[in-house]
Every structure is written in C-alpha cells, then in structure tokens.
C-alpha cells in the first residue's frame, strides 16, 4: 500500500470517529510506517484538524503549513496544494510581513520600500516602473490609508481559506502604533 492509500484509510478512520476495529487500526498504523514525508505531513494535517474539531487541541493549534513558491504562489500543502489567491498588493503585504516575524510598524513601512517593490514586481509582473512606484509609494506613505485597506482586504481574503478561530495566525495583528505582525509559527512557512 502506498502513502496515498494509507491517507485514504486514515481519512475513512477519522470520518468514522475512529470506529474501525482494532485490527484495522493496526493495519493503518503499519501503513503509516510506509508513508513518505509528504504523505506523513498530509496525514498529520488531517489528524490535527480532526483533533481540533474534537476539542483535543485547545490552544495548541499554531496554524497550518504554507509554502511560498519561487513565483510567489501561496500554497496549502495539507490541502493538496490549494492556492491562496490574493491581489498583488495584498499579497505583497502578506509576504513582507511573513518575512519579518518581529513585525513592522505601519509608520515605518517606507524603510521597506525596496523590498516591497521587489516583491510587487515579482508578483504583479508589472513592467511599468511609474505605476509600481506610485502603488508602493501609497502603500508606504504614513498619511495614506492604503496599508489599512490592504490589511483589511487580506483578512477578508484569508477568511475564505481559514476558520475564524484560525484566522488570527495569518492576518496582521498588533495594537495601534505598535508593530503589526503575522503570528503564524515560521516553522510552518516554507520558502522555495
């Protein structure tokens, strides 16, 4: 039995509240031994989700793994590489804050203008330097509301992918005037 078949057994077992007979559970455990790393990580996600639904992981769910590809796609490996789709400026903000776990004050975003420009140009594939400069300029201008709009858009977009209880790990959090940050455990973030 390959890793995929073991995952099917695991899904069946979880969907039936672990109601398989002991020999079947033993069989499943043996199949887990045969799974490769990718299949095991997928299975761990399924188990973590089920335990969370059962209330067995209260306060311990730090988030779900995400993978950032070279072309800046954001994938959820535990959901068969479902892509989180964000608009280019929103994605730029998300990736910038993922790169900086210590957080960034909105008022200090102008210090990150070059990094944001590089991210945005890679994401949007825009070749119009003036448009890029204008959009990043608005985003990093403390007098402009653009960053607040993008943070709100990020929360709204991510709510399509995560339950309300999971959302705070992926969105920008922080008190007014303090650094904003994404709380997701960076061990769960893979950059290609």
* Largest β sheet strand count, sense and barrel closure: 4 strands, mixed
* Mean pLDDT, all residues: 83
- What share of the residues does DSSP label as strand, in percent? 5-15%
Report the span from N to C terminus: 30 Å
Number of domains as seen in the coordinates: 2
Helix content: 40-55%
Order of helices and strands: HHHEEEHHHHE
Low-confidence stretches: 57-61
Question: Over all CA atoms, what is the radius of gyration?
Answer: 20 Å
Q: How do the strands and helices of this protein lay out in sequence?
A:
Blueprint: H1 3-15, H2 22-34, H3 37-53, E1 66-68, E2 74-76, E3 82-84, H4 88-99, H5 113-124, H6 129-140, H7 146-158, E4 189-191
Parallel strand pairs: 1-4
Antiparallel strand pairs: 1-2, 2-3
């Amino acid at each position: 039995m390959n890793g995929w078949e073991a995952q099917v057994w695991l899904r069946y077992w979880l969907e039936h509240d672990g109601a398989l007979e002991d020999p079947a559970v033993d069989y499943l455990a043996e199949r887990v031994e045969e799974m490769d790393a990718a299949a095991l990580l997928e299975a761990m996600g399924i188990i973590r989700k089920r335990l969370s639904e059962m209330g067995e992981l209260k306060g311990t769910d730090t988030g779900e793994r995400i993978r950032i590809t070279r072309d800046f796609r954001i994938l959820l490996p535990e959901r068969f590489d479902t892509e989180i789709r964000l608009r280019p400026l929103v994605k730029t903000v998300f990736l910038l804050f993922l790169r900086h776990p210590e957080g960034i004050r909105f008022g200090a975003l102008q210090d990150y203008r070059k990094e944001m420009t590089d991210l945005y140009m890679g994401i949007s594939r825009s070749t119009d330097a003036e448009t890029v400069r204008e959009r990043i300029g608005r985003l990093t201008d403390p007098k402009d509301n653009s960053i607040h709009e993008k943070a709100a858009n990020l929360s709204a977009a991510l709510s399509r992918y995560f339950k309300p209880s999971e959302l705070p790990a992926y969105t920008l959090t922080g008190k007014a005037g303090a650094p904003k940050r994404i709380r997701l455990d960076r061990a769960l973030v893979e950059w290609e």
